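To whoever is on call:

I kicked off a structure prediction for a single chain this morning and the downstream step that reads the tokens threw a length-mismatch warning. I double-checked the sequence; it's 276 residues and nothing unusual in it as far as I can see. Pasting both halves so you can look.
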Amino acid sequence: MKFNLEQFEGINPFHFSAKYIELDRNSPENEFDSHVHEECEIYVNLSGDVSFVVENTIYPVKPGDVIITRPFEYHHCVYHSDKLHKHFWILFSSSSNEYLFNSFFEREAGNANHLSFPPESTEKIVALCHELTKPEPLPGERYYRFFKLIHMLHHNGIAAETQTNYPPDVIYTLNYINCCFSQKITVSEIAKEANVSVNTLERHFKNILNISPCEYLKKKRLANAAELLVKGCSVTDASLRSGFADYSNFISIFKSAYGVTPLAYKKAKQEKSTPM
């Protein structure tokens, strides 16, 4: 008897972390809630009065909703009250395995970061996340649950709506910074373009996103610099292409954010990606 054998691409080793988390907006951990990293992220909301910012889009989040981000996408959670925020947080590396994660790397622009699901799918996703947070003695079971979750996100998720009832100057600023962060820009210039005063823009931005326009601009620039370094750019090139005019200041800001100098960060990522 003759069989036709289908050839599959190999799966490269990757690291993975799943946590169940409970926080409120006064929790110390939220100091680091504006973040960028080289892993893909899956956030599953269980409770809380929160929204999620991904790049230049603000998403309202309700229980059962999922936010997905790919490497180096800026994102952070915004707290609107003291209500307890319960959620799952899953990180996994995707380098050389991108073809397995279409929902993350081949999605369309717009609302694709924010997914909602019918009740029966939500129950299954939450159950899978609970299982993934438990120690599993059999690696095969962990692989199975992880890829079952990825399959459900890809095939059962429906792009949810963005939130549009925010001041126009905030939305304008998010779009402006995401488009022009590599250029020489100031908050006063952005405020003028948005037809508001600097004080008004900073107040709206802080009240809604819990971060200042300057801090948001800095984080966008740092995220771009980190991505360029991982891709092999020199420290000087990464600095200039990310909007940092002062090289020494860039090194200081980068080290403060990432704990190492840009050169050390680049070398560490290169060593990590080099086959043994």
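Update from on-call: the warning came from a stale cache, not from the record. Cleared it. Sanity check on the structure: The beta strands are 16-23, 40-47, 50-54, 57-61, 66-69, 75-79, 85-92, 114-116, 158-159.
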